[in-house]
Each structure stands twice: as structure tokens, then as C-alpha cells.
Amino acid sequence: MIKKKISMLGSFAVGKTSLVQRFVRSIFSEKYHTTIGVKIDQKIIQINHEEVNLLLWDIHGEDEFQKVKPAYVMGSSGLFIVMDGTRRKTLDIGLELLEMAQKVAGDIPFVVLMNKSDLKESWEITGEEIQELKDKGMEVWLTSAKEDTNVEEAFTSLAKKTLTE
Amino acid sequence: MPAQKPDNSMDDLSKKLALQGQLEEVRKLLTGYDRKELEHLNKLLKDKEAFSEELSHLLPVAFKKLVDSGGVTLEALQPMVEEVLKESIRKNPKTLSDILFPVMMPAIRKAVAEDIKRMLDVVNQTLEHSFSPKRIGWRFQAVFSGKSYGEIVLSHAYVYQVKQVFLIHKETGLLLTQAGNEETTDADLVSSMLTAIKDFVQDSFHSTDDSLDTIQVGKLNIWIEQGPKAIIAAIVEGNISQNYRILLKENLEGIHIDYSYELDHFKGDTARFQKDENLLEECIQKEKKPEKRRKPIAAILLILILMGALGYWIYGLIDQRIRFDRFVQKLKEVPGLVVTHTDKQQGHWVVEGLRDPLAKIPASLFAQNKFKPGEIRLKLQPYISLDPIFILKRAHQKLNPTENQHFSYRNDTLFISGETPEEWMKSSKNKALQMAGITQVIFLNAPVTASKPDLAIEKYTFTFGFNSDTIPLSEQTHFKHIVAQTRSVLDFNFHNDSVPVIVVLSHTSKEGNKAGNKIIAQRRADKFIDLMVSWGLPPEVLIPKVTVKSDSALTQPVRTVSFKIEYAKSIRHD
Ligand SMILES: Nc1nc2c(ncn2[C@@H]2O[C@H](COP(=O)(O)OP(=O)(O)O)[C@@H](O)[C@H]2O)c(=O)[nH]1
Ligand SMILES: [Mg+2]
Predict the structure, then answer these.
(1) Which part of chain B is CATH 3.30.1330.60?
(2) CATH code of the domain made up of B447-571
(3) pLDDT in tens, B478-523
(4) Record: fold of B158-287
(5) Which residue in chain B has the smallest CA separation from A59?
(6) Which of A99, B380, B433, B476 is the most buried (most CB within 10 A)?
(7) CB-based burial of residue B464 (10 Å sphere; 0-12 exposed, 13-18 middle, 19+ buried)?
(8) How far is A145 from chain B (nearest CA, A)?
(9) ipTM
(10) What's the DSSP call for residue A16?
């Protein structure tokens, strides 16, 4: 079986844990805090009649008190850069983290998740800004862990990318 | 030279000292310090080290006074301190982390351990959920003993057991392959977690590669051995020898050599590693607990049974022997029977001996000692018993006395009393003298009748105790006087035509054991006769006579001995 390490990166409270929860267990709930700053889940999915075991590293969000440990990103085959549409700052932090991750893990496939799409009316990040990201060649999904929007699709998409590249 | 003018120099010195003391005095008065203190202060100001040392004692006190008095606020100081700390970290973060390490480490270690435990509960679960009849049994044991399942598992079967070995790709944390008897589906997850933990520890504490070599999760120990490209993690139950680490190291080195290319170019495809089934096989080790020796219940039972049987057999033998001895004892008591030898031959008891044809073996003797007649073989040769009873019996058979005649026997002498016609006397005397055990025949109640003096002995009667033949000493003394009188009166000269004889009459009952009664009656008579002989009476004239009567028909009470004087015509056997 093919196995892939996928890292979830993003500022704190953008919804990384919620997204993984939704994807792995199809539920949206509970918070899980770890001292070591990472929580790992796995999910086996079918891609082109092939089973892929995704090891999802939910790495604690960057904030003023905690820095993402580069060691956790090492060896990743793919990245999710998660941003919270309702907080402008999470876009910048997301891009910073992407830069850091690429330094550590190399030029690996990644997907940007613009989360909390269910709260679109209170989004600070504009459509233009999202378009800018797309123009840079990034794949951007508007997701909602709460309403289960595009979660499966986004994960499947990144998994495919890790296989082809 | 001071030695040459001692007086002078001594004088000088004392003068100098006196002057110095005065100067000191003056200085003290003027400045308030003495010279020593001044020297100390001077030295302090010049020696920075010493001065700062001195200040360090004073500063905190002074500072506290300053804050307490409100001269300076902590708020005002805070940015300053923070700035200093930031600068320190910027210059060399390790310094601070080294300082904080001893303080933080225990707390962090605790928190991490908690995390690991939570994360690795997965491991426990998969191990615990495996199913087998043995494990179900342990589960019950856990429930009933109140111990945890893990404890029970550990307490059984193994001193240690390597349950699972993971080969993990170091960079990605992905599981390359695993070995172990319990396939854990979550092995991938566990591998990633272990890698994360390893990363965390190394990253947080700037530690070297082998800093995290074991993690304890409940009853399980995870042994981690790191190489440049791969990690081996072994999940061990129980206490394994430290040598196991060497084994892990060697295995890991081997893997690095054999799979160098695959490890370098690993893209998540583990097939290459999983193909090699023996890759980690060596790392799976276990040592069985020395089986608690089961108590060999069956064997113990068998031994007990055998011992019981043996005991019963021995008991039987002993019991049989005891019964046989009792039987022989009783047999010996039978008159006219002599036991010469007893033996056990081919499972049969054998009694050899002599038996007078007149002797009767009571048939009850066998049954009384629980023997069947066939169980004891009696090999008895006929013989002529010289037992008085048998002599008398034979005398009766041979001489065929009339009703009025009475036989008794003592000391080789046959006494015949009653009517004795002259003819019969002659023939019977000859017949009697031919019989074994008879050397003399004395006829009592001979026709000669002498005037009988009145003798105390004829009025004497002694009553024995039941089944007893003892004569108390006091009674003997009393009887001795009677005998002395008898001796002084009677003339026991055998050359006379007639001789007085003392018939010792022993009366016994015919109730109960008649034979036994007779024997004891005989013994009682003998006791008196022995006494009389010892006091000087010739044994030939003492004639025992046992009379058996039914209790009711008794003129004399039973168990008595009395005496009667008769005269006999002495007929000697040459
Ligand atoms: N409305 C809404 N809330 C969300 C969504 N995803 C996460 N949240 C909430 O955002 C907060 C942070 O989520 P969490 O998953 O812990 O973020 P993390 O710190 O990135 O792991 C929680 O209160 C979640 O309930 C979403 O898609 N929509
Ligand atoms: Mg989270």
C-alpha cells in the first residue's frame, strides 16, 4: 500500500483539526490539544483503484506563543495551507508557513483551504485576494468543516497530486 | 646584633610598640576607624572582584528597600528585564534553555508522557483487543482479581515479549514494515506518532539522536533505535535485557546497508520492504516464564493410594502376626500340647509341636483369632504328656476305678483313695507303676485306722480371691503355726505300716470355665503344699485333691482350700 504524509498548516483556530475530523470521521466536534503540538490521524482512500493511506499531521497553528516545528513538516508528501476566511491575518500567516514548509520539505504539492465558507458574509478575505492566490498557480478550495463543504474533494485532490508528482 | 645587647634592643622595641599603640589610639579618636578596617576598605575599592562580591550581598537588600519605599516600581523594571532576556536569547538561546532546562524538564516530561499515553492508547487497544481463548481467560481473571488486564497478561506466560517491531522511515514517519504476532492495523498511525514524539523531544531539548530510546506506555515499553534514515521501534511487554538494544542496533545497521537506495528514494511505497519477511524477524523475541510447576496431583494421589495400600498390607501382616501369636499363646495353654516351632511357609502359618493323644484343641481357638481352620497348619507329633491331668486321665483309662475310688497325683506319686480291695490294689499298683510319670502308688484310707488326734489343721479353711492363688503373708504366718502343731503331733515314718497323709482339698466351682477352674484350684493346693514342704513336711504325704462342685451343691464354699488327715498304707515302688 502506498502511504503518504500530509501536513496541515495554518494559523491557530483556522479549522485544521475540524477539517481532519470531518474528513476522517465525518464528524465535526471536540477540540484536541496536545503538548507536543501535533495530532496525527490516518485515512485510507481509493484513488484510481489504488488504496492510499494518508497520514494526516495536524500541526498546531502558528500564533504569537507557539511556532510550528519545522521537524513536523519534514518528509511530507503534500501540504494543506489552511486559512480562515473571517480573519485576514491568517492568509499572511498561511503564506509564511508555506514558505517555511517548502524550505524544509522541498517543492511538494500543496492545496490552500479557505475555510469557514459557511460564514462568508463575515469574511475579511476578499474574492480578489483569493484570485491572486489562484493566479500564482495555487489550488484553492473554499471549504466548511462545519457544513462539510468540499472537504472530501479537497483531500482527494491533494492525494492525487501526491501520487502523480 | 640583638643578642649582644639584649637590654638595649628590648628597650627599643617596647618603646616602639608603646608609641604605635598611642598612635592607633589617636587615629581611632580622630576618624572613628581603626587601621585594620581602613586597610580592608582600601583593598575592596581596588579589587573589583572582591568589591562586587561585597556588593552582591548588599544589593538585593538595598533593592528591596527601594521597591518597598516606592522609590521604583516593578512595572518600571519589567521592560528592562524583558529587554535583557530578549537580548540574551538573541545572542545565544541555548544559554537560557540550559538554565531553564532543569526547571522545565520535569513538567514537560510529565505533560509529554501524558500526551504519548493518550496517543498511544491506540497501541494498547489493538493489543488488548486481540482475541484468543487464553486471553479471554485472562480477561475473566482480571475481572475477578480486580487487577488490570495488562497486569494479568504480564503475570502470565512471559518474562518479556516483544509484541511488535516497526521499521519506520525516519523522514516521513511512515511505516516501512512490521513484524510481530499481533498485526496492528494502526501501526501506520503509531509509527507516525512515534516519529512526532521523537521530533518533539529532539527539537525541544536540542538533544542528540539517541536521547529518546525508550517510552513507557502503561505496561508497554517502546524501545526506539534510530539510524540516519530509519528507526526501529519495538513494543515490549515486560523486562527485556539491555542486550536487546544491541540486537536492534545491528538489525538497523543491516537494513541501512541492504536498503540504502530504497530508504533514500522512499516515496511511500512500502512493498519493497514488506516483501522481506525476515527483515525484523530476529527482533521478535520472547522468554517464557519458567512454568510454575504444576503440583503433580495425580502422582501424589497415586503415591497416597499406594502408601495406603502398603500401610493396609503392613497392617494386615502385623494384625495377622498378632492374631497368630495370640493363637499360639492360647495353644500353648492347652494341656497336653507343646509348641516347638512356629513359621510362615508359602503364605500359611505353621505350628509344629507335640500333642498328647488325650489333649483336645478347642475348635473355638481358630475363630476367636479370626483364622479359618485351613489358614494354620498344625504339625503335631504325638507324645505322652507328663502333665498331672494327663497322668490322671491315663490312670483312669488304665485302672478303670469304681465310683468310690478317687485318684490324685503329685510328685510322681499316684494317690488312690476310697475302697480298695486287696486284689485290685496289687494289679492296679503294677499297672500304675508301668505308666509314665508314676514312680510310686499310695493307697489312702487303708484298713488301718489309728486314733486320730484332734488337729487344728483340719479346721482350717482359707478362701482365695477370685481367680487368684496368692496367700497373704499374714495368713502364711498364721498357717505356719498350724503346720508346726501338725508336725509335732503326727509321725511321718514311712517304715510304719500306715502313714498319715494330709489331703489338701481345693474346692472349685464347675460354673464357667471348668478346665480353667480346675487348673487354678490345683495351683492353689500346690501353693499350700509348697509352703508346708518348705516348713519341713515330707512332700510324699501331701496330697492335692481338687473337687469340682456346682455352686449350689457346695458344702464348702468355692475358692477354698482345707485339709484332711488320712492314713495310708504305704506301698513303695522299690
Ligand atoms: N463556522 C465554522 N466554524 C469552524 C469551521 N471550522 C472550524 N471552525 C471553528 O473554529 C474554531 C477552531 O477550529 P479548530 O479546528 O480547532 O482550528 P485549528 O486550531 O486550526 O485546529 C472552532 O471553534 C471550530 O468549531 C467551519 O468550517 N465553520
Ligand atoms: Mg487544532
Answers:
(1) 447-571
(2) 3.30.1330.60
(3) 999 988 888 888 877 777 767 788 889 888 887 777 777 888 888 8
(4) Beta-Lactamase (3.30.450)
(5) B196
(6) B380
(7) buried
(8) 23
(9) 0.88
(10) H
